[in-house]
Protein: Putative N-formylglutamate amidohydrolase
Amino acid sequence: MMADPFRILGEPKIGGILIIGDHASNAVPGDVALGLDADHLNAHIAWDIGVDPVAHILTQDTRFAAFLGRYSRLVVDLNREEDEAGALPSESDGRRIAGNDLDEAQRADRIARYHRPYHDRLETLLRECRPALILSLHSFTPALKTRPDEARPWDVGVLYNAHEAASKTAIRFLQDAGLNVGDQLPYSGKLLNATMNRHAEANDIPYVGIEMRQDLVGDAAGQARFAHILSEMCHFVSEQLGLTT
Structure:
């Protein structure tokens, strides 16, 4: 029996804080052959390094729960609309993903198995246990192989689309904490924000989109540090915006 394409950590609560990690895993289900070796599956192209352990630490606080993708972003990219080509990427940072050369029927089957159930369950969860705040948690590589001359010096990036209040408040907190903060960096939430557009903005749920730099969350000390910072950030944002957590 196929496992659900999501995992839930902690107990989601009405008025709590929900972490959403679309790319928290590099696992590949047994019926999918991507044509990649272990080195590629452990690299940034396959998942958001650091998200899973940071989410586990945060959810030790009962005010937090987490909804995490179970499979690699190369199996299906959950932070894309299902009809986007990038939902089943044919390449990532210069690496061809041969297992995603699919015909129309195969593509539809992959979406039906791994993309749609994730978003359907998240939709139900938010309806039943509407959080006060969503923490959209991602991470970024310090350097892309295909863009070696493009500097990515930020400790953390903050992303948002039309709903800016929570993220702008978070930026102020993170800067005051001494971090080098990328406002809409390393890319803009106005261009890539599918999960938050659908589940947060469409439902008028405040959210902060976070991108952690992967070399800073690659070990236990860095993960604990970021979990502490993000916990304090979420509570600061909640207080400043008058949210209940």
Notes: The chain has six helices and nine strands. The CA atoms of residues 34 and 99 lie 4 Å apart. The domain at 6-241 is CATH 3.40.630.40 (Aminopeptidase).
